[in-house]
Amino acid sequence: MDVSSSDLLHEVAGSETELRFFARFWEWERFVRENLPAVLEERLVTSLFQTLFRLSEGLVVPCGYEALARFPTGPRIPVGLWFRTAREAGLGSELDKLAAGTAVESCSLLPAERFLNVNASLGSASEVVKEIAPHLGAPLVVDIPHSALWQKGCRATFDALRSSAVAISLDDTPLDQLFDLRREIEVARPDYLKVDVLVGLFDSPMGRFNLAEGAAWCRDSGIVMIAERVEALEDLEMLYELGVEMAQGYSLARPV
């Protein structure tokens, strides 16, 4: 029996909503693959900056900025898809360096005493630092995905970055897996640990317990915990009371 591509998609995706999502995602992937060479050649990346805040009793104090890459299509296509496609094509380092370099070119008006946080993969982090550090007048923090903990050469790369006076932030660390990752984190010794507090934290006693225990462990380990995606100002007092030292999110400052 012949099976049409439409029937096959329905079998894989299920509902009409899922089908539309998969079709849109494939359209995005095709667009990114076709346009990635031009983005790199013509340097078609811009930067937005989102402020990070240090939490203290009754205060939130700006202390740094995360550089966020943006591409010609705006927010319609997920930013992560550009970087994933670039890695699959062997162009990940080139795109990471372009994004970080664009951030440095754009951050001249930022206060020099506050750090600049740029994103990179484990494989490209050293190249990114070598390219941008000489042109940056502010302290540099490199944001590396927590998945790097299982990659070969993680500790050597982190040690090399530290020897260049660069701080390291471990990104997207799952709060519910934090204690399972303690051994790997202790070996890698990042300076900052980012956890996503948007999903389920404030409605979940277990989530609040995990965050408080994780924040205490981070302080004892010399690691600064950063709460990401803080979406409500009333959450800040709870984060402070639970021991979280820094935060970022739309309720505090949108990327600009």
Describe this entry's structure for a reader.
43% of the residues lie in helices and 21% in strands. With 256 residues, the chain is of the alpha/beta class. It has 2 domains: 1-42; 43-247, TIM Barrel. Strands 1-2-3-4-5-6-7-8 form an 8-stranded mixed beta barrel, surrounded by 4 helices. A hairpin with a 2-residue loop joins strand 1 (46-56) and strand 2. The longest helix has 27 residues, at 16-42. The N and C termini lie far apart (55 Å). Residues 1-13 have low confidence and may be disordered.
Using the coordinates shown, work out and report the CATH topology of the largest domain: TIM Barrel
Helix content: 40-55%
What gross morphology would you assign? globular
CATH hierarchy, class of the largest domain:
Alpha Beta
- Please list the strands of the largest sheet in the order they lie side by side: 1-2-3-4-5-6-7-8
- Mean pLDDT, rounded to whole units? 86
> Could you say what the CATH architecture of the largest domain is?
Alpha-Beta Barrel
**Total E-strand runs:** 8
Radius of gyration: 20 Å
- The CATH homologous superfamily of the largest domain: EAL domain
Spell out the helices and strands N to C. Answer: HHEEHHEHEHEHEHEHE
